[in-house]
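Lab notebook, bench 4. We co-purified these components, and the gel suggests they stay together. Before we commit to crystallization screens, I want a quick structural picture of the whole thing.
Request: model the full complex, all chains together.
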Amino acid sequence: MRIGELAQVSGTTTKTLRFYEEAGLLPAPERTAGGYRDYAPEALARLDFIRRSRTAGLTLAQIRQVLDIRDAGVAPCQHVQDLLEARLGDLDRQIADLQALRHTVARLRDDAATVDPTSCDATTVCRYL
Amino acid sequence: MRIGELAQVSGTTTKTLRFYEEAGLLPAPERTAGGYRDYAPEALARLDFIRRSRTAGLTLAQIRQVLDIRDAGVAPCQHVQDLLEARLGDLDRQIADLQALRHTVARLRDDAATVDPTSCDATTVCRYL
DNA sequence: CTTGACCTTCCCCTGTACTGGAAGGTCCAT
DNA sequence: ATGGACCTTCCAGTACAGGGGAAGGTCAAG
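Here is the predicted assembly.
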């Protein structure tokens, strides 16, 4: 399978496939006599795994770790569980941060609706913030 | 006031002050005979405004817009209200996205806790994802 | 034999908000 | 006059996940 075909069936681009290879996520495929990349069908499953992992918000570095474990012949189950747990903690923190920021911004907006604009002063730029 | 002093009283760094000048957030200050930047005291209020705006999650580009309006002699009140409203919409979207992702990841983790690891298969890499 | 689609490597660019460091100039005290 | 603290400009890099485009090679069809 050539790179364009793999890109199409996996729903990505040739640029991304070369980038993944460079980043160590995809093994370097065989080459045809003309120098073209010639992918084995298994590459598609691997790309699906990468896509699913990305959907879960894992970074390419984390995905590479999982793949490295698998490629070393070990089942990465425990590592994946740890990653998911850590990711959940990150998400909770991010959500909490954004909610706190939301409160701040909502309060600024509410103040802006009630405060007299003439009390703005040029040196302070804007008293709404 | 020299750049180091302004950096200290405003709680930032000289690097950042030069960067803000370059980015059009701070007007280029007077220079001393020796070529040193010589800030007027008003610079501090402007930096406070920038800091408050950053706390509200505004980008430097948005802050610059507000400052440009103010520097054109117009009170930026309406623009700031619009910005805050838009920011609130962005935050709501971001929070909703992260919460959806949290659900996805939580479900993956829960599945990982119950599914038999021996059903993993090397080509799929990991059935938890 | 040529055209066009596809492929190759290579290097730079995107956006965000800075940060690090080199080479050199200024100022004040000793 | 010399040391050290401070300042100047300029260049390059950080993290993230690719994207853009140039210059050139390959392959099947007409």
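Residues 2-4, 14, 18, 34-37 of chain B lie near DNA strand D (CB under 10 Å from a C1'). Worth comparing against the SEC data before the next meeting. The mean pLDDT of chain B is 90.
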